[in-house]
Amino acid sequence: MKYIIFLYLFILFPLKVSSDFSEDLKTIVNTKDCDWKCTFNYSEVTSKTIEYFPRNCEDVCAILTFNSNTDLAESELKRVFKQMHYLIGGLRIENSNITSLSFFTLIKVYDTFNFICDTCKLYHIYLIGLSIVNNSLLEDIAILQNFQFWVTPHSAYECPFQILNNTKLDTTDNTTLKDMSFLKSLKEIRSKHGKINRNVVLNIHDNYEMRRLGLDNLEELYDVLFGPFFINLENLHPEFCLTFEELLLFYEQRVLFNNIHAKYCPESKKKINGQKLCEIRSLDTLDSDCDYLLGDLVIDSYEGRYLYKLFNVIVLFGTLKIQYTKLEGTNFFYNLEYIASLNDSHPAILVRSNKYLKQLKLPNLKVDSPSLTIHVISRHKDAVVIEDNPVLFSSNMECLMYRI
Ligand SMILES: *[C@@H]1O[C@H](CO)[C@@H](O)[C@H](O)[C@H]1NC(C)=O
Ligand SMILES: *[C@@H]1O[C@H](CO)[C@@H](O)[C@H](O)[C@H]1NC(C)=O
Ligand SMILES: *[C@@H]1O[C@H](CO)[C@@H](O)[C@H](O)[C@H]1NC(C)=O
Ligand SMILES: *[C@@H]1O[C@H](CO)[C@@H](O)[C@H](O)[C@H]1NC(C)=O
Ligand SMILES: *[C@@H]1O[C@H](CO)[C@@H](O)[C@H](O)[C@H]1NC(C)=O
Ligand SMILES: *[C@@H]1O[C@H](CO)[C@@H](O)[C@H](O)[C@H]1NC(C)=O
């Protein structure tokens, strides 16, 4: 089985998929103030039930379910759904013969379809959301790019979202998701896992055609119970890349990664947030006023006289290696806040064989509060390796954590 995406928005554990259709629909009707004339009160879409679909309504309340009993041509669905621009409730396409989702009709001016995904119920946790599972003939879900997903802002409940085991979608090159831009209006992902839970919130894996994340409006990722927020990016297209902005967002939001199978996106920019970005060739040719660095920074025994150039650096997109130096400390990294390394063959930080090194203090490198590790993104499994620095102050907390 191949998963395309398995993404929970506003997830709440443990999962319990609701099975009581009429209870669920009643909740939607009550909480969303649905007009009964515009409510589709049937648990599946078939040639029999479709007669009762409220064809003249723009806002339809329903748990619209397409399954193995769905025996309607997509052209017929297109006709029936012509007026519907807002779906309030849930959408399930499971075990069906459907080939394309283009039977939804977009609002002309905005080119969008609105999905008000709100499925909360007090005390019982239950899930409807959007589910596209086990559809062996489905090959076109492009319309999801025009879906606007809405979730009640005050709600701590969840809008689960899953697309998995749709064989054609997984294997047909031209229709496989190249990015997640169908969720481009998504601003916020909240989880509710807590401090000891290491559940992955955003799990994107085995999407061999995925080259970009494409969640361009994403601003906030956090756990409402102050736990860690895990993302997994695994087995994507070999050119899958993250932009500097995305990496900075992950830093600001303190995201942790199980896997980060990604490169830096090729970009020619010279500034980030109005501050200077420099590519590292060597320290002697590096400008002395760089705020962001791209590349692998090696500080060896001969680099001592250039270290002043690193004083302004806030972020390093690359690896840091300090080796064979006569340095006693690392004060020249006074402003360094963040390292994001996407090199899978080296740890993000390697400090080795510095005979005189007493202090390895990176005063502004942020510590991640839930796990108390220094916040470094590392594609290599070891984020930090410190070895063979004989006089490194042994009571230094940061060193003790990584001592080898
Ligand atoms: C749906 O129909 C059933 C049976 O006619 C009825 O009991 C139920 O109240 C209806 N639900 C809604 C939300 O209108
Ligand atoms: C779905 O496709 C299968 C295989 O082609 C067929 O046997 C089945 O009758 C179809 N189901 C419906 C509801 O059309
Ligand atoms: C998908 O198919 C598997 C295997 O046939 C089944 O166990 C699972 O319940 C199906 N999922 C859905 C949502 O129907
Ligand atoms: C995937 O979906 C197909 C039907 O499309 C089903 O026969 C198969 O059992 C499913 N596999 C899993 C692992 O759910
Ligand atoms: C993908 O699309 C191109 C041109 O649009 C076509 O030549 C190619 O055969 C398609 N590939 C697949 C696997 O459908
Ligand atoms: C990782 O670093 C090594 C040595 O610094 C370099 O040769 C290699 O190209 C880098 N790999 C990537 C994917 O950047």
Q: What would you note in describing this structure?
A:
Helices cover 9% and strands 28% of the residues. With 404 residues, it is mostly beta strands. It has 3 domains: 1-168, 24 nucleotide stem-loop, u2 snrnp hairpin iv. U2 a', Chain A, CATH 3.80.20; 171-267, no CATH class; 271-402, 24 nucleotide stem-loop, u2 snrnp hairpin iv. U2 a', Chain A. Strands 1, 2, 3, 4, 5, 6, 7, 9, 11 and 13 form a 10-stranded mixed sheet that branches. The chain has a 6-stranded mixed sheet with strand order 15-16-17-19-21-23, with helices on one face. A 4-stranded parallel sheet has the order 18-20-22-24, with no helix packed on it. The protein is elongated. Bound molecules: 2-acetamido-2-deoxy-beta-D-glucopyranose (6 copies). The site of one 2-acetamido-2-deoxy-beta-D-glucopyranose has 4 residues, from loops. Residues 1, 134, 136, 165 line the site of one 2-acetamido-2-deoxy-beta-D-glucopyranose.
Task: State the main characteristics.
about 400 residues; mainly beta; 24 nucleotide stem-loop, u2 snrnp hairpin iv. U2 a', Chain A; ten-stranded mixed β-sheet; 5 helices; disordered C terminus; binds 2-acetamido-2-deoxy-beta-D-glucopyranose; Rcpt_L-dom_sf; signal; Rcpt_L-dom; SPS2_domain; Receptor L-domain domain-containing protein
For this structure, the CATH topology of the largest domain is 24 nucleotide stem-loop, u2 snrnp hairpin iv. U2 a', Chain A
Straight-line N-to-C gap: 40 Å
Let me know the average pLDDT: 82
Number of domains: 3
Give a brief description.
The chain has 404 residues and is mainly beta.
